[in-house]
Amino acid sequence: MFERITNYFRGVRAEVARISWPTRNEIISLTALILLLVVLVTLYIAGVDLVLGTLIELPSRLMG
């Protein structure tokens, strides 16, 4: 049992050693890209919400 656990962790260590980690510049670039996309999607959703909210309230404004 102890040998199986030891072999498992050796395998995990070997797999982690084979991972190609991103460079610092890649991390910074990808983080900036993600933040930009979050801002753009937020603005899009806010715009759609504003337009739909205005369209839903339009009949009550015209009638009242």
Description:
By secondary structure, the protein is an all-alpha fold. The chain has a domain at 23-64. It has 2 helices and no strands. The protein has helices at residues 2-18, 24-63. The chain is elongated and about 80 Å long. The chain starts with a helix and ends with a helix. The mean pLDDT is 94.
> What percent strand?
under 5%
Mean pLDDT: 94
Structural class: mainly alpha
Please outline the major beta sheet: none
Report the span from N to C terminus: 79 Å
Number of helices: 2
Strand tally is 0
Helix content: over 70%
Overall body shape: elongated
Q: Can you write the helix and strand succession as a string?
A: HH
Radius of gyration: 26 Å
Ranges where pLDDT stays below 50 over 5 or more residues in a row are none
Topology:
Blueprint: H1 2-18, H2 24-63
Keywords:
64 residues, elongated, 2 helices, mainly alpha, 0% strand
Short description:
The protein is mostly helical and 64 residues long. It is built from two helices and no strands.
